[in-house]
Amino acid sequence: MLIEQMQTWRHVFKLDPNRPIEEEMIVRLLQSGTDGIIVGGTDGITYQNTYELMRRVKQTSLPCVQEISNAKAVVPGFDGFCIPVVLNTNDTEWLIGAHQKTMKEFGEWIPWNQVAVEGYVVLNPEAKVAQLTGAQTSLTHDDILAYAQIAEHLFRLPFFYLEYSGVYGDALVVQATANHLRHTKLIYGGGIRFEKQAREMAQFADIVVVGNLIYDDIEMALQTVSWVKETKLIR
Ligand SMILES: CC(C)=CCC/C(C)=C/CC/C(C)=C/CC/C(C)=C/CC/C(C)=C/CC/C(C)=C/CC/C(C)=C/COP(=O)(O)OP(=O)(O)O
Ligand SMILES: O=P(O)(O)OC[C@@H](O)CO
Ligand SMILES: [Mg+2]
């Protein structure tokens, strides 16, 4: 799958290989009308649990991409690969270090036309991803907008990801960020549980990610697809 195809997504479910999920739930997610499935998580990600989840989600033609957080868990066979780079960390491991090591190992095998880089700004200090990467989460709106401009103009990244994993984010931040991006697509993820939240973030973010709600309330999670897709982007 090409990056250009991912850039047209509006709604995506993120499944965590480290969490159990019933077959019936997977089937319902695949039939939900979502644009794709991202497989990834921060902790407990292994080749085995990622392979197993990939096998289960690749039953239909729905695009399924792996978001790589651990080089040992890269599984060939996904339709695409998302590579996070954490912009708001002082720990170079999560900005470039892990990437350089993985490149040394896999460099010549990488299917480049299936790879998309996501510039992450991690904003929930309690999230596992914030703790792992040492993300500097006390940021002003201007700090965040500067990262967005780096993603678009300096690094020319296809995606900029406002990551509030586990909590609902600040819609004003998402709106202001959206207004600063033209080519780079804005991904929003974090704490979507209710209709009002899904519709609010879908006004500003090109792509809305729903994660935890899948495991907490599958009925509500399934409804987020139409809530997001019915909402017009405001720019
Ligand atoms: C042969 C073949 C097919 C090869 C393809 C391989 C390929 C495409 C290689 C690319 C090379 C490359 C540069 C890879 C990157 C390697 C790497 C390990 C980079 C580090 C990425 C990174 C910054 C990870 C930190 C964690 C992170 C940002 C995770 C993202 C996922 C996330 C935040 C999930 C949220 O879920 P979770 O935190 O688990 O939430 P819960 O608490 O609710 O569980
Ligand atoms: O799990 P939630 O809080 O929905 O967040 C979605 C996604 O941004 C996590 O990487
Ligand atoms: Mg997890």
TrEMBL record:
Keywords: Lipid biosynthesis, Lipid metabolism, Magnesium, Metal-binding, Phospholipid biosynthesis, Phospholipid metabolism, Transferase. Belongs to the GGGP/HepGP synthase family. Group I subfamily. Its EC number is 2.5.1.n9. Pathway: Membrane lipid metabolism; glycerophospholipid metabolism. It catalyses: sn-glycerol 1-phosphate + all-trans-heptaprenyl diphosphate = 3-heptaprenyl-sn-glycero-1-phosphate + diphosphate. It comes from Baia soyae. The keyword rRNA-binding does not apply. Homodimer. This is Heptaprenylglyceryl phosphate synthase. InterPro entries: GGGP/HepGP_synthase_I (IPR039074), GGGP/HepGP_synthase_sf (IPR038597), GGGP_HepGP_synthase (IPR008205). Sn-glycerol 1-phosphate binds at residues 14, 161-166, 191, 211-212. GO terms for molecular function: heptaprenylglyceryl phosphate synthase activity; magnesium ion binding. It is an enzyme of class 2 (transferase). Its cofactor is Mg(2+). One of its GO terms (biological process) is glycerophospholipid biosynthetic process.
